[in-house]
Amino acid sequence: MDCISYQAVADAERYRGAFFSCEPYIRTRPLTPAEQAAWTEQDRQAKQRRQEAKGAEARALVLLDARLGPREARLFARTHTLMRPSQLWPGVEYLIPDGGHEMVRVVDKGREQTRLCVVSAAGEPWPDRTMTILDLIESGQERRLWEMANVFPNEAAPWIERVAPKPNSVLPFWYQMFLGLMAAILAVAIVRVTIGLLG
Fold first, then answer.
1. Does residue 71 contact residue 86 with C-beta atoms inside 8 Å?
2. Residue 163: enclosing H or E segment and its boundaries?
3. What residue ranges in the chain does DSSP mark as E strands?
4. Interval 106-117: pLDDT, tens
5. What is the pTM of this model?
6. Sign of dihedral through CA atoms 35, 36, 37, 41?
C-alpha cells in the first residue's frame, strides 16, 4: 500500500471513528484546493440556510403577534404560553407553549390531564406551528389536532378514553416505536455529520 492510499484509509478510519464517537475529526493531510473550495462553498450555503431560517422565524413571529393583538402578544412574550378553551369539551383548555420544543398541555377543570406532542414539518418556524394549533382549536377541529399529535397521558387513561378521538388508522405500537427510534438515529447522524463538516 503506497503512502497516499494509506493516508486515505487512515482518513476514512479516523472519520468513521469520529462519526461514532465524540472525538473531533482531524485530517492527516491538508485539503487540496478543490476540496477547500467545496468545503468553503458548503460552509457558505449552511450559513445562508441558517440566516434564511432566522428570517422565516422572525416573519412568522410578526404574523403571530399580529394575530394575537398587542395585549395578548405581550402576555405571550412574558409567560411563553397561550391558553385556548376547547370548543368541543366544556372545562377543557389547551396551554400552547412557544419555541416548538414543548408539548401542548391539556387541562381539564384546572388539572393537567395529558400532553400533545405536535411536531413541526421540516424547516417550519415554531410560530407557524403555533398558528396551526390555534387554527385547529379555534375552528372546532380539535379532533384533527388529537389525531396528528402523539398523546402522552399523565395517569389519566379513563379521561383520555372518554375525551380523545379515535384515530382513523392506528399503526401498531412496536412500529411507532421503531419509526421513532430510526428518526432519532437519523437526527443524531445528521448532527454529527454537520458538526464534522462545520467544525
1. no
2. helix 157-163
3. 81-85, 92-97, 104-108, 111-117, 150-153
4. 888 888 888 888
5. 0.56
6. positive
